[in-house]
Amino acid sequence: MTALGVSLLIIGAIVIVVEAHVPSMGVLGGPGVVALTIGTVLAVGGLGGGLLLGVVSALVVAATASAVLAVTLQKAGAVRRRRVRSGPEGLIGRVGVVRNWDEPTGSVLVDGALWRARHTAIDENEEQLVPGDAIVVERLSGLTLGVRRAEDWELAP
What we know:
Helix 1 (about 1-20) packs antiparallel against helix 2 (about 30-45) and helix 2 (about 30-45) packs antiparallel against helix 3 (about 50-80). A hairpin with a 2-residue loop joins strand 2 (about 105-110) and strand 3. The chain is rod-shaped, with a radius of gyration of 28 Å. The chain is an alpha+beta fold. The chain has helices at about 1-20, 30-45, 50-80, 85-90, 150-155; strands at about 95-100, 105-110, 115-120, 135-140, 145-150. Strands 1-2-3-5-4 form a 5-stranded mixed beta barrel. The model has no long low-confidence stretch (mean pLDDT about 85). It is built from 5 helices and 5 strands, in the order H-H-H-H-E-E-E-E-E-H. Helix content is about 50%, strand content about 20%. The termini are far apart.
């Protein structure tokens, strides 16, 4: 029983460490805590510590492992709630400047890169974009940005 208990302790610890580095939202960490708990009871019982000492030790180990798992899950959740900052999704909502414009298309400078852009305004009464106007990226279609004129509140730092 001692060998099985020690094996479960090692496996449980490895699985919890993997959970910390590959956040699977508890899919790996939960069974790791269970393996640590059962492994502690079997190892302490196999070494002659008695059932009561094994259960108390298992509770201490389970509480510690659960706390580590809770911190890991909290950090993983915080990362998932973050806004995308790179790639195509990261351009949506960015503010840029019109470089040249010939309605309904032109080129805009967004984050230091020159992009082809298309005006996405629905209101036909809206005045045309001119070089120097601030724009906001609304969508991305291939390598062409869908843009609209930036509102005053979007330009505030």
